[in-house]
Amino acid sequence: MKLYAPKYYKNFKCIADKCTHSCCVGWEIDVDEVSLEKYKQLTCGYGAQILDTVSFDEVPHFKLGTGERCPHLDENGLCKIICNLGEGYLCDICREHPRFYNYTGVCEVGIGASCEEAARVILSSPDYAEIEEIGEVDGIGEVDFNARDERAKIYGVLGDKSLSYHARLEELYRRYEIDMGKNEEWLEKIESLEYLDASDKELFLNYSSACRPNSTDTDEYLERFLAYLIYRHATEAEDGEDLRSRLSFSLFCERLLASLICTKGAKTINEVAALARIISEEIEYSDDNTLSLMY
Ligand code: SF4
């Protein structure tokens, strides 16, 4: 099966020790069976210590240390497994993060905005509609509903620079018959979500569909964030109705980012990317939250 990615995908590289929200802190990393077998073969040097850091309660995972840090994260923010053994010894989750894969007749890979560097790459890439073949993966390439063709039409509207960003959004709401809904209803949903950080709930409660920043730069960041959400979520739609739900979810997250930009007075790409990262981490990376906002 062919593997595709947005053109900007190749611009992503983990910034490791320069990352201020490292994915190596706060997350329990499950260790896959193949990696576990590799670790069992290591009998000397740093490799011999790895098994001692694995908890075998339920799914094998690395035991978090002080401050919920991965036991292999050194004081300089570097991975000791990479430093001592090379990237080939990373477990699947560490090697793949922040990548995600969608199987839509072909396989498409992307980078998730919960990673601060990925969020910056996404928001700085105007060429989001350019999807290119980057290789092959195993898999069966058949689906009943091809949402990729519909995504190309959506991107056609979203990227139509002859219209203002506001007019392009209006056209998407009109064409796909999406109702923005009442603020009170969305605020109730925001209240009911699960949060990694309670202060993010307070931040999200600033949501209002009337909050729109008044700047061409931030409109471009919003457009690119929306394009990313559509690539990630709408492309796996199973039929036309499902596509509408997923597009509606993507548009809600776009409105939420617009509200947070207004609340925080964010202007620069780093400021906007920081807010996009929070939305991604709290919403996209929780299946329960995503489903509750999508359907
Ligand atoms: S969050 Fe992203 S940039 Fe930061 S350590 Fe993880 S993969 Fe690297």
Report on the architecture of this protein.
- With 295 residues, the chain is α+β, with helices and mostly antiparallel strands.
- The protein folds into 2 domains: 24-96, no CATH class; 147-294, no CATH class.
- The protein contains 13 helices and 6 strands.
- It has helices spanning 33-41, 47-50, 80-85, 92-96, 116-123, 147-158, 165-175, 183-192, 198-204, 216-233, 240-264, 269-284, 287-294; strands at residues 2-6, 54-55, 61-62, 99-103, 107-111, 131-136.
- A 4-stranded mixed beta sheet has the order 4-5-1-6.
- A hairpin with a 3-residue loop joins strand 4 and strand 5 (107-111).
- Helix 5 (116-123) crosses helix 12 (269-284) and helix 11 crosses helix 12 (269-284).
- It is globular.
- The mean pLDDT is 95.
- Iron/sulfur cluster binds at residues 14-16, 19, 21-24, 97-98, 115-117.
- Iron/sulfur cluster (SF4) binds next to helix 5.
Task: Estimate nothing, just give the exact number of structural domains.
Answer: 2
Largest sheet: 4 strands, mixed
The chain-level structural class is: alpha+beta
Distance between the termini: 30 Å
Instruction: Give every kind of bound small molecule, once each.
Output: iron/sulfur cluster
Individual helix count: 13
User: Approximately how much helix is present in the residues?
Assistant: 40-55%
Approximate shape: globular
Q: What is the arithmetic mean of pLDDT?
A: 95
Strand order across the biggest sheet? 4-5-1-6
Q: Which ranges are low-confidence, i.e. pLDDT below 50, for 5 or more consecutive residues?
A: none
Percent of sequence in beta strands: 5-15%
**For the CA atoms, what is the radius of gyration?**
20 Å
N-to-C SSE series? EHHEEHHEEHEHHHHHHHH
The overall strand count is 6
